[in-house]
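Today's session is about reading a structure prediction critically. Students often jump straight to the picture, but the first step is always the sequence itself: look for stretches that repeat, for charged clusters, for runs of hydrophobic residues. Only then move on to the predicted structure, which in these notes is written as discrete structure tokens rather than atom positions. Here is the chain we will use throughout the hour.
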Amino acid sequence: MRREVVLTPQGYKKLKEELDYLKSVRRNEIRDRLKESLDFGEVGENPEYEALKREQAMVEGRIEELETILGFARVLDEESINTESVDIGSKVTLLDLDTQQIIQFTIVDPIEADPRRGYLSLESPVGAALLNKKRGDETVVKVPAGTRRLKILDISK
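Below is the predicted structure for this chain, in token form.
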């Protein structure tokens, strides 16, 4: 049994747009290129055809994956996002107690995680350490680069 996937509205939209693109554009591009590549010789002697078949398989696999994810997805309602303690969908403002740097992340499902854009997986070391913590709480987190001491300054939607 697959677990429920909880997505922000933006995350759901992004995955839906990717699915629509793959099904309506990318699939057709590959099909057309496959037809063209057959004009260059027999299938067994045509490396371009074999490469396109592999690409087609990857695209079809991604389409299947996205359909499964979106089928299990629950889109977060902004009104249901908890601001009392850290949970999925919470925007958390942190103070790194060692560097005095202020950091802000939104806690999301691993499928939507993108730390460079400020979306942190609830299953990451930092995300897991922050879950259920409240404003003012401090936590120590072991990350690949060492240990970080973090203080929660704010929790918002």
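Discussion point for the tutorial: The mean pLDDT is 91.
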